[in-house]
Structure of Mitochondrial ribonuclease P catalytic subunit:
Amino acid sequence: MIPYLRQTLLLRTRNTRKCHIYSKRFYKFCTTWEKQFANVLNHPTDVTKETWENMRKYAMESEEKPQIVDSYILLMCKQANYLDVGINYYKFLESNNYNPTVSTIALYLKLYDLKNDPITKADMDHILNLYNYITSQYQLFDSTTSDILVRVLCKIDEWREAIKVIEKFEMMDNNFLRSGYSALIAYLYNCGEIDLAYKYLIASIKTGIGPTDEAYSAYIMYCLKERDKFKERLEILFNLWNKYDIKPTKNIIGKFITICNNNGWSARLTTITSLTCSTCKKSLIQADLTKDEYIRLEKAVLDKLIMKNIYSVTDPHEIKTYINFINNRKPYDVIIDGLNIVSKYKFCTFAEHLIYYKKKNKKVLVIGRFHMNKIANMKNLQDLADFFFVHNWSQDDLFVLYAAFKSGQNTIILSNDLMRQHKFALDNIELHTLFKKWQASHHYISNGCSIPDSRVQIDSIIQKQDNCWHIPYMCGHFAPQTKHTSTSNWACFNMCPQ
Ligand SMILES: [Zn+2]
């Protein structure tokens, strides 16, 4: 219990500091500090104890919370890339019995993580001693500290301890240690621990976020180690990106393009216009789900999404009536979210859609609301489709999905509701991706024209057509969570160019 309480205290301290340190005042302090101590910052290895003390005093006078002054100084060193200054300042603290806090120790270790120079044996021993010290004082660490520990432990070849940090963290917290995982995966690939590296690569990809470029860079270097396995290994990664809906960054795609071109592929950035790649001219029609994938998604949608939620959005009598109605009348070819279409466009557009499907001999179900019955001419459409009206308070998109999945794999839906909330309600990343793929080939929207054939602008997924992989990549730091609907920001990887 005591270590847990200590840990709680640690987290609160860090959070308070976190809000504080990124204030304007912090940046102002950094600027004035850089002027005041330019000599120290430029020559950090030959600084007297008195000068370090003056620096500390100066920071304390400028900072309203003197108890965090050392973290403050190290953070400044990190932000402004004065890594050796921070490292030497910490050593001054330690050798003069200032008793650095865990936050200060963590920041000191972070400086080693950022340093590109080789770490001396003495510094490696020091890092390990500090790690042993803080783990003897605390059983658990927050995500920031855990990430730092994992990274710096990999840097000094203590990867088994790094794994222990991850395992301890994951026993108490569901957050993904993305930075730590990435460093560990890269380290394991670089040192030839391939099975273990793959285990952590898969685990990180299954979060739906994936590791950072650092891990993918190490992965492609591993692919290069045996030229005859290059294609097979790279396709393993691309298939994982497809299965778990991962989008790489522009930076890593650029690196992959260079390496693939050096290995006989033809890879380049491209654009996708009207679902066609401007480079290889192949059509990117989203492949439908396999039978097994569809069965899995159908079960999840009916169990997890609909049966679990529908009682909260309608009344039991209405559900019973609806289920009997569907069982007696299915299968349908097209399910239309009637209210959604009528409210977005004119009633005549809605009627034109029904006429269009009638001409194509499609069996159509319209889910509407009771109040739609009051629309003049609604009764004239009864020969074109089946209608089921739900209470005005019912959530009709669940009715649409129920009818679609009860009708089978060939059924399409027409709705301008992109159903994002349902996608996210499927709390498994694989199901989430399957739902997206299903939408890509079964979910149509009305764009106001008489023919409702515009496919939903859904988030794009990496895909393979013959020998070409088409990969949507993202720009920016938070790439994995960002939706990708643009025609640019694609890469075409042709594995067998002629
Ligand atoms: Zn292409």
